[in-house]
Specification:
Layout: E1 2-8, H1 14-27, E2 32-37, H2 56-62, H3 68-71, E3 73-74, E4 80-83, H4 96-107, E5 115-121, H5 131-134, E6 140-145, H6 149-165, E7 174-181, H7 188-198, E8 203-207, H8 211-218, H9 223-226, H10 231-245, H11 257-266
Parallel strand pairs: 1-5, 1-6, 2-4, 2-5, 6-7, 7-8
Antiparallel strand pairs: 3-4
Helix pairs in contact: 1-10, 6-11
This protein binds iron/sulfur cluster.
Family: Belongs to the NifH/BchL/ChlL family.
EC number: 1.18.6.1
InterPro entries: NifH/chlL_CS (IPR030655), NifH/frxC (IPR000392), P-loop_NTPase (IPR027417)
Length: 268
């Protein structure tokens, strides 16, 4: 079973990328589970045709005898969707949501299949963002970033976390690469490729900004489902293929802030 985690700054497009990636894996006949860990708990919404599924944390507050059907919902392509959930924005759960989710899924023996995709917020706002990496769940991390300084900054912070956690025996996380989710900035592809090189990794996919994404979202679907023949759907299929073939996993070296800013200036 491959356990793949997408990390990145809030609002960078992780959930869109994760959901399309899961849909592309499912299209290949793989048994896929997607677990969202984000205070917005909307990671799996497009796979669920706009439905906000109840979160594990919410369900646990209500009752103790949870069954699989209470927390695992089947979405597009048979993808099993789970939302770890979280508290009110700004309060933070220090990882309780995601820990409880892992424990429950393990107890139910439901953490299985060909691929588990974790969609995890990369800002350190909720204090639990390292959990999937720390406890050996997320073995391959992909950073989702644009060329904007703040999203590179968040990606760089996650590199620090991977490097630190890789020293622990329970953590097996390694960086698989960087996904550039374009904001249509000048020189963005070159900037993110160079950032990837400097941290000791590589850019595995450049995802262009495309209105197919918005069109799919307003129709409450992934691009793979809404516009399967579009070039954007092929971009996500390409990403899925690259990830499946990728065995080049590294411990990254984070940049210091001066280096990061200098890099961003050089590509303006
Ligand atoms: S750690 Fe908790 S609050 Fe943070 S995103 Fe995950 S479930 Fe939500």
């Amino acid at each position: 079973m491959r356990q793949i985690a997408l990390y990145g700054k809030g609002g960078i497009g992780k959930s869109t990328t994760s959901a399309n990636l899961s849909a592309a894996f499912a299209e290949n006949g793989l048994d896929v589970m997607q677990i969202g860990c984000d205070p917005k708990h909307d990671s799996t919404r497009m796979l669920m045709h706009g439905r906000w599924i109840p979160t594990v944390l919410e369900q646990m507050y209500e009752r103790k005898d949870l069954e699989m059907d209470d927390v695992i919902f089947t979405g597009f392509g048979g993808v099993r969707c789970v939302e770890a959930g979280g508290p009110e924005p700004g309060i933070g759960c220090a990882g309780r949501g995601i820990i409880a989710t892992f424990q429950l899924l393990e107890k139910m023996k439901a953490l299985n299949g060909d691929v588990v995709v974790y969609d995890v917020l990369g800002d350190v706002v909720c204090g639990g963002f390292a959990m999937p990496m720390r406890d050996g769940y997320a073995q391959e991390v992909y950073l989702v970033t644009s060329g904007e300084l703040m999203s590179l900054y968040a990606a760089n912070n996650i590199c620090k976390a991977i490097a630190r956690l890789s020293e622990r025996s329970t953590a097996r996380c390694r960086l698989g690469g960087v996904i550039c989710n374009s904001k249509n900035m000048d020189n963005e592809r070159e900037l993110v490729a160079e950032f990837s090189r400097l941290i000791g990794s590589k850019m595995v996919q450049f995802v262009p900004r495309d209105k197919a994404v918005q069109a799919a979202e307003v129709n409450q679907m992934t691009v793979i489902e809404h516009a399967p023949a579009s070039p954007q759907a092929d971009v996500y299929r390409g990403l899925a293929k690259t990830i499946l073939a990728n065995d080049d996993l590294r411990i990254p070296t984070a940049l210091d802030l001066d280096e990061l800013e200098k890099l961003a200036r050089a590509y303006l």
